[in-house]
From TrEMBL:
Domain of life: Bacteria
Listed SMART domains: HTH_GNTR (SM00345)
This protein's name: Aminotransferase class I/II-fold pyridoxal phosphate-dependent enzyme
Record keywords: Aminotransferase, DNA-binding, Pyridoxal phosphate, Transcription, Transcription regulation, Transferase
Family recorded in the similarity comment: In the C-terminal section; belongs to the class-I pyridoxal-phosphate-dependent aminotransferase family.
Single GO molecular function: transaminase activity
Keyword DNA-binding among UniProt keywords: yes
All copies of domain HTH gntR-type, residue ranges: 7-75
Gene3D superfamilies, alphabetized: Type I PLP-dependent aspartate aminotransferase-like (Major domain), Winged helix-like DNA-binding domain superfamily/Winged helix DNA-binding domain
Keyword Transcription regulation annotated: yes
Length: 435
């Protein structure tokens, strides 16, 4: 079957493997021929075959097993955010907001209808644009920026990378990293370069190494980083800005997903003279995931490129949704409810972390929707033991960009909606699973 792989360029070889997989000639688990062997058979340079396999790996179609070779993988075996399907276990790894804390849009819905918007009209609601500019201006050092509305933060990241990069370009990602960012980069055919995260955010040395490796874009979560919950400190942000001043055309994408729920001040990597940037604020965490709307504040050139991808008649965000979002955000009662929700998440997560510490499991809550729990033994062992106790947890393995062969010692837990009794039981069960 491997003899059917053809091509004279990396793209042709990768396309050939894709087609063989699609036709069922190559099945998941099948081993591709060694790089040198395939290069010799096709009469191409070894580097051409290496590049082809890299394209397939970045697309999530193959995985390297070291001496065992390169294997085709199941494309649906990818970790995703949200509830696990088909389980009777109590799922505490969802990453979801508490539905009881999402404001009811019903009172505002009646106010957003009106004259239909037609092809050729402006794609951004003027009221939402003005509100967004006022919201973002205090936190964006760049003096000149434009507002674009997208269908959520992941949609914005995908479009931002597509307008700036070519296939196989390098993108710096936090390590550990938000699942959606990993998948967006991988499925876009870009090359992920891990940047270590500590208690103050991205480390300077790791970002410097990524820049030296030629990254053309950086995706960063300045506060409530998912999965760790850490936020950039003022000192760390200043040091990173100083470093990035030497690379003004590297695209910086900041995903401020927790924005209105966060108790932390906003620190940015974007300096006043940086040329390519985007600050993203989705409404999903506080108005609900189904709202599918994000505000993107970008430099003017990036805004123009995004506008071409959001042109009338193709993929602009519904004006009904934009008006509904604006109506909710302008409502004082909704804003009060959002602040209360942020307080709830902080108090529930902090209390759970304190209970874990009382059992000798060191956990520190900083910010965000989840808890990042460090364990003295591999997380997969704890996960399996918790399943026998009725809990479904999410291990840190899927969030890691490095040490793929080293088991994670972390759990990412979503526990803010547990009752006091359920929270106490989960703490006891985690402690028992560790023992």
């Amino acid at each position: 079957m491997n003899d059917q792989i053809t091509g004279a360029t990396a793209s042709d070889i990768a396309t050939s493997v894709r087609e063989l997989r699609d036709r069922g000639v190559l099945r998941p688990g099948a081993a591709l021929p060694p790089v040198r062997e395939l290069a010799a058979r096709l009469g191409v340079n070894r580097n051409t075959t290496v590049a082809a396999y890299r394209q397939l790996a970045q697309a999530g179609l193959v995985v390297s097993r070291g001496r065992a070779g390169t294997m085709l993988v199941e494309h649906d075996a990818v970790a995703q955010e949200g509830y696990a399907a088909d389980t009777v276990l109590r799922d505490v790894g969802t990453g979801n907001p508490d539905p009881r804390l999402i404001p009811d849009p019903t009172p505002v819905l009646a106010t957003v209808t009106g004259r239909p918007v037609l092809y050729g009209e402006p794609v951004i609601d003027t009221g939402l644009e003005a509100w967004s500019r006022e919201w973002i201006s205090p936190d964006l050092p760049a003096p000149d920026f434009r507002i674009t509305i997208t269908s959520g933060a992941v949609d914005a990241v995908e479009r931002l990378l597509a307008q700036a990069l070519m296939r196989d370009d390098a993108v710096a990602l936090e390590d550990p990293c938000f699942l959606a960012s990993i998948h967006t980069v991988r499925l876009g055919g870009y090359r992920a370069v891990p940047v270590a995260v500590d208690d103050e955010g991205m480390t300077v040395d790791a970002l410097r190494a990524a820049l030296d490796a030629g990254v053309r874009a950086i995706i960063c979560t300045p506060r409530a980083q998912n999965p760790t919950g850490v936020s950039l400190s003022p000192a760390r942000a200043a040091a990173l800005r100083e470093l990035l001043a030497e690379h003004p055309y590297v695209l910086i994408i900041e995903d401020d997903h927790f924005s209105m729920l966060s108790s932390r001040g906003y620190e940015s990597l974007i300096g006043p003279d940086h040329k390519r940037f985007a600050l993203l604020r989705s409404v999903s965490k506080f108005l609900g995931p189904d709202m599918c709307l994000a505000v993107a504040a970008t430099d003017p050139e990036t805004a123009e490129r995004l506008a071409m991808r959001l042109s009338p008649g193709t993929t602009w965000v519904s004006h009904l949704l934009q008006r509904l979002t604006l109506g909710l955000l302008e409502d004082s009662g909704v804003r009060t409810a959002i602040r209360a929700a942020g307080t709830h998440y902080a108090e529930r997560n902090a209390a759970f972390a304190e209970q874990l510490r009382a059992h000798g499991i060191e956990t520190r809550y900083v910010d965000g929707m989840n808890l990042w729990v460090e364990l003295p033994i591999p997380a997969q062992i704890v996960s399996e033991r918790l399943m026998r106790r009725g809990w479904l947890v999410r291990t840190g393995d899927g969030f890691s960009l490095t040490n793929a062969d080293t088991p994670s010692h972390h759990l990412r837990l979503t526990v803010h909606d547990l009752t006091d009794d359920d929270a106490a039981q989960l703490v006891e069960d985690i402690a028992g699973a560790v023992r």
